[in-house]
Amino acid sequence: MAERRVFPKGFLWGAATASYQVEGGDPTSDWWVWEHQANRIVGGHTSGQGSGWWGAAAEDDLRRAAALGLSLIRVSVEWGRLEPAPGQWDEDAFRRYLKLLETARELGLTVSLTINHFTLPLWAAKRGGWRSRSLIRCFESLARRCAERLGGSVTYWTTLNEPGVLAQAAYLGTRWPPGDRSLRSYQRALTHLLEAHVAGYQAVKSVLPDAQVGLVLAMPMYRPASAALRDRMAAQGHDWIFNGSLLYALKSGWVLPPISPVIRPIPGLDRAYDWLGLNYYGAYKVAFSVRALGSAFGRHVQIGGVKTATSDWGEPDPTGMVEQLRRLAQLGVPLFVTENGIFNDRPGRQTDYLTTHVQALHDAIRGGVDVRGYCWWTLVDNFEWAEGWNTGFGLYALDHRSQARTEREVARRYRGICHSNALPE
Ligand code: BGC
Q1: Could you tell me if the CB of 339 is within 6 A of ligand 1?
Q2: Is this structure's pTM higher than 0.85?
Q3: Cis status of the peptide bond prior to 110, with omega within 30 of 0
Q4: Residues with Cβ < 8 Å from 106, sequence gap 6 or more?
Q5: DSSP H or E stretch at residue 212
Q6: What is the pLDDT of residue 313?
Q7: Partners of 312 in the beta sheet?
Q8: Sign (positive or negative) of CA dihedral 6, 9, 15, 18
Q9: What are the helix (H) ranges across 208-348?
Q10: Ligand 1 centroid from CA 425, angstroms
Q11: 229 CA to middle of ligand 1, Å?
């Protein structure tokens, strides 16, 4: 008989969202301009009215989350709405977010707030985005303002979401704005993001000394396509580029290639996290290829993965999540799974994915990893960046036109987990 896996008392069950993806109608953002350009988003989609979160739908969805039995909600704020011009703060926008956060708290949801989830104000994009050093101080002011204005409603703070993904997709690649396709831009942006994280961490702590401030990293698993040495080396290379170099930077406070062309310290980085978040979706199988010069001599060859014509989240691999949690645990702070999920590409897939990953999470905790909470990505279907509205990751399906929500099977499974704080047999 299958074992009933019970989680530690007080374990937080949540869902993660990101402001730009759910709010809709945000012309203050670099993404707004980008998504309205030709050939940027699959099918020419635009974020439109989003999932209605700049309006009352946000509070309705929070009520859905609470009714489902969730105890944690991960949300973020739009920098451009809060600071539409450099140094000009929009108090109405702060009030809007405050209302949302207070509603969450009144519903018994612990709030995890990400100060910046990828998007930039247009004025910041015009300065060169994260290529520009000046953004570090700007982000520091934003973090301080958020701590001053929203501090009372937030339990867990995240400075930045997935700096490595952002630097790759927007500065090394062409899928996200500004789409630079430049190694130099990637290195500048990623180094600045890490420096901004330290500045943001310190800014929040200067206002709220007891705040729990962390950073959220995406850490896909890279597995060799075969036991051959060349494939193992290619997989290790990819892991270093994407995961290892960031973990090393957080542990030591030094950035190495490829993050920086020269080895140099980022003062304070090794002390700038009270907790860490893992965003985990799947595993890539890496095969050595002499022709793959632009992708560090490795090609992704996994089959049965979760992908669309233009994006690839890898193959579901719950064991990989345990392995990545163990690696993160070496940094010595409590952990959260801040995102984990799959889109609804065929019946039953999300539900199986949730079950197997919650099982793996239990294995990690039982093995001694200090994980305090888990967030499914995402609560309600949202605007999936360059994928537009094509991938429904939500516990609730959204009809984007009518804004009607429909509970998915995965939500029913999740309700059982949240209510029993266990994975039912
Ligand atoms: C990001 C989300 C995104 C999700 C699914 C994560 O990397 O933080 O914004 O929607 O992956 O692709």
Answers
A1: yes
A2: yes
A3: no
A4: none
A5: strand 212-218
A6: 95
A7: 307
A8: negative
A9: 229-239, 245-252, 318-329
A10: 30
A11: 32
